[in-house]
Design goal:
Blueprint (H helix, E strand, L loop, with lengths): L3 H10 L2 E6 L20 E6 L2 E9 L14 H18 L7 E8 L2 H19 L6 E6 L9 E10 L9
Parallel strand pairs: 4-5
Antiparallel strand pairs: 1-2, 2-3, 3-6, 4-6
Length: 166
Amino acid sequence: MIEFAEILETIAHAPIKKRAMTNHGVLNEAYAYAKPSSFSRGMRIDIGGVTILLISGTASIDENGVSVHVGDFTAQLRRTFDNITGLLKSEGCTWHDIVRTSCYLRDIDRDYDVFNRERTAFFKEQGLDPLPASTGIQAHLCRPELLVEIEAIAMFRVDKVGESKE
């Protein structure tokens, strides 16, 4: 069995590779908006056989950069989950690799009960156990029609693709 100190030593000296991540079938790039915004949909960091995905705040935006499901909190939340799912899939992972989410709600007093119910149902559909660490925050979002935005962090071993689960 590998000792923890060996793992730290390997990581300490491993080269770090990073690149932007995207999935144009789900979301366009923020810099392609009519009013461009300077960020990547996410960043992939590979270090010592481990991949970390830092997924930028993601909302109910379609592949053309248009806000969808305006006024419908539940539908916006589901589209947000779908968008994050598409980004995860483009990097070869799933919600099972998510370790943390930061969830921004425009009106936490009004929407938290619905948010928590829908998030719980979504996580149950995904079969998540353990659940990711998470924080809920009230915030003014970048577009007035958006009601929810979620950031996520995923971690997985690079060699997991094609790995037997036996």
